[in-house]
UniProtKB/TrEMBL annotation:
This is AAA+ ATPase domain-containing protein. It comes from the Bacteria. Residues 237-396 form the DUF4143 domain. SUPFAM superfamilies: P-loop containing nucleoside triphosphate hydrolases (SSF52540). Residues 24-155 form the AAA domain. InterPro entries: AAA_14, DUF4143, P-loop_NTPase. PANTHER family: AAA+ ATPASE DOMAIN-CONTAINING PROTEIN, CONSERVED PROTEIN. Pfam families: AAA_14, DUF4143. Gene3D superfamilies: P-loop containing nucleotide triphosphate hydrolases.
Amino acid sequence: MEKLKVIERIYNPHLRKSMDSPLITVLIGPRQSGKTTSINTCLEGISGNRKFYLNLDSLFERDRVKKNENYLLEQIEETLGFGLSLLKERFYLFIDEAQKLPLIFESIKILYDKYSPRLKIIISGSSSLELLDRTAETLAGRVQILRIYPFSISEASLYEEIGDFECAKSLYNGIFSGSLTQNFLSKLSKEFKPGSKKKMLLVDKLITRSLFPPTFSKIDEDTIPRWLIDYIDTYVERDMRSVKDIGNIEGYRRVVAQLSSRVGNLLEYNRLGNDAGVNQITTKKYVAIWQESLIGFLLSPFFLNISTRIKKAKKVYFFDNALIWALGGFKGREIIKASGEIGHYFENLIIADFIKWGINLEKPPSFYFWQKSHASEIDMVISTGGITIPVEIKYSTLWDNKYLHSIDMFKEKHKGKKLKIPFSLIIYRGEFMMPRKDVFCSPIWLFC
């Protein structure tokens, strides 16, 4: 069998840095997002007698831990060949699916308190809800949390050998730092222009194609819809059933399906509950669980007054476009275009990509949307390092001056309020241009 290709992930620098931290590294993220592969890659250079991997997905391993409260320490010292207290170098303990055995967290706490920093502990699991609950209860103040998501656009490009991180990384650094300039973007566009056609074909495919790593490495293109159905069934039936107070699992499934039909739109709990056949209190609980499971997220409206921001309706998005496509019944591309949904798919792809890049930075940006009226709306507002950047997202390949309207309304609304806006950004399927000196129009392929 051909060896599976393992690529560099955008969060790997942060993961490698966390390996030097004395804190316990906790990886959370949806099932099949690449957590275990990334950890194993980071530990490849560690000799065999300085690491131990425990997979608690195994009933056999869970039983062994239950029967012996000193199981972890004994396995570490058996691997070393001597007592852990005598170790001069670092030992790496990796526990996968830790949430499946709650009592393991007390053992982890005891080991950490006695042997840190010579013992580095890494925990991961496919049920982020339970994992976060357990760490909050037992390991408070001892953990560093990293979030792992399906591929970003540039990771998909790297896997497909179309491009690498250089272009996207440079672009995101410029955006998040507020340092983008005309010369920089012009140079970037010229340098990476030769690969733009292949990148545009990839972006077009990613409108409905899954970004979960196994769909690139293990699953044939034709069987991805079947894999997505199985993934959703596993997510709902296996992962969510274990969440306390989930209640009616079929009601939860209907709420998630209804959320997929509202991507890019405001979330109204009354309408969502009515359409899913669930009362409003339960609907709010299910939406909170959906967010915490890292399948999707809500974007808050941008207000200078934080209390106002909290009260107002939020917008719905998913971390993988193919989940929207699957939950919506695998509609054909022409139907998606004809219904006007293609713009929401495109918007979802880009906003999720921004969050994937920003989430594990030392100081993660905050992301919002802004809406004055239906005609004056900013798809994404980035708040980072004391600056604010309005971002418009357009599926079009052609420039239209009307795209400036919402940006102008946003600036007018916040005029005189000491909001620092270094530039505005429009992301679309056309070519790089500047309709005026404070607005950059970036082709989507630059994010590949």
